[in-house]
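Private note to self, pasted from the team thread so I don't lose it. Backbone tokens:
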């Protein structure tokens, strides 16, 4: 049964889907604004929110968790630059802005950015 399995699969197997989300999360942290499909942006939002919340803790364990999730350079930027900006904010660190459909296949496009 497929109950409570609400995540989108994107036509990929689990390992490839996880690598896609890791890559998108890493790009979002390093670039602070990325253009992707609307579905991918919606799947990425909770991952990014949780990463920033983890970065706000500032402990060694949280830093190692982030390194495992997005790599060392993105984790360093997250802990030193991004997370301190949101210390007084309780959540809602990302914004999704819808864009016109992609010309090639008509996919819904969106920007996801850090607020």
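Design output:
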């Amino acid at each position: 049964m497929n109950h409570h399995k609400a995540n989108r699969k994107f036509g990929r197997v689990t390992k490839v889907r996880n690598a896609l989300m890791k890559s998108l999360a890493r790009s979002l942290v390093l670039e602070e604004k990325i253009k992707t499909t609307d579905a991918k942006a919606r799947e990425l939002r909770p991952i990014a929110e949780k990463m920033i919340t983890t970065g706000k803790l500032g402990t060694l364990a949280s830093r190692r968790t982030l390194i495992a999730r997005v790599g060392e350079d993105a984790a360093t930027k997250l802990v030193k630059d991004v997370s301190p900006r949101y210390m007084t904010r309780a959540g809602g660190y990302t914004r999704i802005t819808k864009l016109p459909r992609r010309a090639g296949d008509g996919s819904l496009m969106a920007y996801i950015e850090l607020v």
